[in-house]
């Protein structure tokens, strides 16, 4: 969560000045993150209040706007998965899709720092979901990794996504865990285990030592994966495993992909079938130097670093002297000091005798002689003002070897800032990118992911030809045995200007009408519907159905037609 706060708060140095920022930080330090960002955004830019008001607090996983079938991510995924493709080909097709459909997908969505605020404001109290729990993973080296686990209701073996989150991120209710639980659990047919970062407060508390960077976190992710495969009580529910990492956890993902090749299990099988690095750190030292030296982000990130160590000081038994207030340096010297902290911790724990220079050398991915063979996707945003795109994703994108390697695909998009792709392009698009890459490397599960279909039999009065379908959405409610389906239609004669308008354009709003149909939950059990036990489960089911169900007529999308007879088409196993 600190990265989110950093990016937003940093603007206040420009707008409010140092003194005002200090007051804001102190007042809001223990506030709910959404309230914090909302109040701060109001303080920075009063005109943004109206923009913040349009944000949907509980994501329904609908697209940012009505989208023509040619750009609908559900239909694009059908095309993407229709043919077996290499990671390079897979990423190339997604890049083409994002480029051609960007204006539709990202229309009127928050960009830049507002995309981070949108991600933070999204509401999902996921620990109230009956299928989401916490887990402590005990590793063979004595380390305990706090984690969040999401398990589908049925016990069938399915892909397990193991994700390492970013700097200062713990296995708790925070914005990054929230957005990726939505994408990888609610909107995907996978089980998930989300790992705390080594810099997370819960990790520091339970382990009492300081670690940093992909060299240690990549290997830790690998042995956590081995534990899940071999010792976890739910290991029989794993059909294949896939590593992901975001931000600093992305450093773990690229290193983890290399270690995945080098250290297979006892039977020669690789632990992970694929790896994905999201808005990743690739080279640690230059990224930290860029971050802390930035006049926009650096001052605030330095404050946040100090606050994290202040909270963890009494738990760090390896380097308590190094995190005392008087020892922590100014922000421009902080990267070197973090290297010194990490190496001193390793020395005192007897893990390794190394220097800060050697530590940073080992945590520069480009110093690894091994060329990754594990299928790898790297996904970054060109407007990331937290983890420099030019120093990380862009370097990977144009590397002489990986640019042409068939097993590696790089997707570098225009918007999303720091991992907020769901805000910039919509949850459906963000989930599709991650979900489809895992599915393309899960052949044992892909066959059962084929679309099923059933006729719509819940009543729909015939509409005249001047009407055209442009969208459908689902809504589940807690303890309700009914589901509401809303049909959105364009009426070309609603007024004298409608006939000449694009039904999917912003200007066509005055030409739209809706029709609602109530459907019994029990009639949708084959689609995975159930009566939700509480509001949180209802919200998750709403997102799930909005993402997985297509409305089709005569084998083609319902949208763009005036059909009153149509089918429901869906991909199974999300439930």
What keyword list fits this structure?
alpha/beta, 575 residues, 20 helices, disordered N terminus, 38% helix, eight-stranded mixed beta sheet, four-stranded antiparallel beta sheet
Specify the overall morphology: globular
How many whole angstroms does the radius of gyration measure?
24 Å
Q: The biggest beta sheet, please?
A: 8 strands, mixed
Question: Based on helices, strands and strand pairing, what is the structural class?
Answer: alpha/beta
Quick one: how many beta strands? Answer: 15
Notes on the protein architecture:
The protein has helices spanning 2-15, 18-28, 33-44, 48-53, 73-80, 87-105, 113-121, 175-186, 201-207, 214-230, 248-262, 284-293, 298-312, 334-349, 356-362, 393-397, 421-425, 427-440, 443-446, 535-548; strands at 132-138, 144-150, 158-164, 191-195, 238-246, 274-278, 376-381, 408-413, 452-455, 467-475, 482-491, 512-520, 549-553, 556-557, 567-570. It is globular. The two termini are 28 Å apart. With 575 residues, the protein is of the alpha/beta class. The chain contains 20 helices and 15 strands. The strands form three sheets. Strands 1-2-4-3-5-6-7-8 form an eight-stranded mixed beta sheet, with helices on both faces. A four-stranded antiparallel beta sheet has the order 9-15-13-14. Strands 10-11-12 form a three-stranded antiparallel beta sheet. α5 (73-80) runs parallel beside α18, α8 packs across α18 (427-440) and α10 crosses α11. 38% of the residues lie in helices and 17% in strands.
